[in-house]
Amino acid sequence: MEGLPRLVTARLVLRAFVPADAAEMQRLAGDPAVAEDTLPPHPCADGVGATWIAGRRAAHDRGEETSFAIERAHDGAFIGAIGLVFEPRPGCARLDYWLGRPYWGRGYASEAAAAVVAHGFETLGLERIWAPRFRANEASGRVLEKVGLTHEGSRRQFAPECGRTDCLEQHGCLRWEYFARVAHCGRAGGESHAPREAKT
User: Fold this and answer.
1) Bridge-partner residues for 52, per DSSP?
2) What is the DSSP string of 171-199?
3) For site-directed labelling of 190, which of 12, 18, 160, 181 has its Cα 20 to 30 A away?
4) Could you give the 3-state DSSP secondary structure of residue 107?
5) Using CA atoms, how far apart are residues 23 and 50, in angstroms rounded to an integer?
6) For the chain, how far is it from start to end, CA to CA, in angstroms?
7) Is residue 52 a contact partner of residue 24, using CB atoms and an 8 Å limit?
8) Which domains are present in the chain?
9) 5-46: per-residue pLDDT in tens?
């Protein structure tokens, strides 16, 4: 994935996907609890992990998204995925992420999301970042609020990825809001989560 930076935070490395991630990605995303409130590929039959990773690389090469594998720094464990999907409107992107269930409740999602939001506004020059979540996924709501994405409203929508109609909550942040927050209290999610970038 040419041109994708490597974002390093206090406990995580956000990096390009590699073929070796496929098996663990497939195992973690195959957990029904992960699929229930997020939208990784599910069910995960053999080969889905490799196909999904190839899809992320192709979308990056087409300029449609920038996606990172989330790696735990101290042991190199693959724990999930996060990225920005660019919209047809210039300067706008959707934040997507998911974590494997063994890694829930440890602040990893907030740490990764803070780094990607900072990358989106500070490096990519985005004007707006937004994220949807299922209403029942309150933990995701707390993550999004923590990294500066304000709750903007609700809508009913069919989610083809999981074949159901559900109420989606939408959160968002504008460029000026992000930089006002940084000036006032440091980067969303905490200064210790500010990413360092190194080109791969």
Assistant:
1) none
2) EEEEHHHHHHHHHHHSSTT-GGG--EEEE
3) 18
4) coil
5) 8
6) 9
7) no
8) 5-199 (3.40.630.30)
9) 999 999 999 999 999 999 999 889 888 878 777 655 555 566
